[in-house]
Amino acid sequence: MPDGVRIRAPRGPEKSPRLENLDAFRKGWFEVQDAGSQIVSRLTGVKPGMQVLDLCAGSGGKTLAMAALMENRGQIHAFDFDPARLAPMRQRLQRAGAHNVKILPAGSSDALARLDDGMDVVLVDAPCSGSGTWRRKPDSKWRLTQAQLDERIKEQRGVLEQGARAVRPGGVLVYVTCSILPQENMQQVGRFLDDHSAFSLLSPQSRWKERADSPLPVSAINEEKVLQLTPANNGTDGFFIALLQRS
What we know:
Elements: H1 23-26, H2 35-43, E1 51-54, H3 61-69, E2 75-78, H4 83-86, H5 89-96, E3 101-103, H6 109-113, E4 119-125, H7 146-166, E5 167-177, H8 186-195, E6 199-202, H9 204-211, E7 226-229, H10 231-234, E8 239-246
Parallel strand pairs: 1-2, 1-4, 2-3, 4-5
Antiparallel strand pairs: 5-8, 6-8, 7-8
Helix pairs in contact: 2-3
């Protein structure tokens, strides 16, 4: 990553470093984040002055990364359906000195409706199975049920629909999951494209060249117009990224 530093994993009896205890962290000079999340943020293609919606912002990790890429210029509208997930964001924004982020009322359909057709970039970091984190939480794969997966797929369709409404003509909808399952990834994108003729896949390779000097990480699946990151291929969590441009 152009602006990332990889911390070596502990060996033997070593303990993981407590980076949050460093003065540099308390001063907002860096955030602790998986490299996959940093790749996602750069692939959004955000620039200073843009209007951006982070639809499933959670505690704001990718929000902060995009705010830095935008150099605190323009506006990021941070939204989540769960107020508890949004709660840590204000403190993180204050620590980082990010002033171009507006936190929308959690779950407010009216707040989202006011953004329709107006966003240059909409990031949909969709609810998912979390299978991309199995390297760190191997026991969680035994707790995933078919019913839970079906529910996540239904939620993904819903947030894709909401995100699509906010994209301006020529803008980009960035669909992301922390998953390695095709049902949540390529199959979900294929269904969306079947239902939305105004959208088409945008090459992540071209997007990356505009934003970074280093080569784009190699995808784990043979689909040129999407990117699948995996621990084995990329040393990151499992992330799926598709860039959907509105004509």
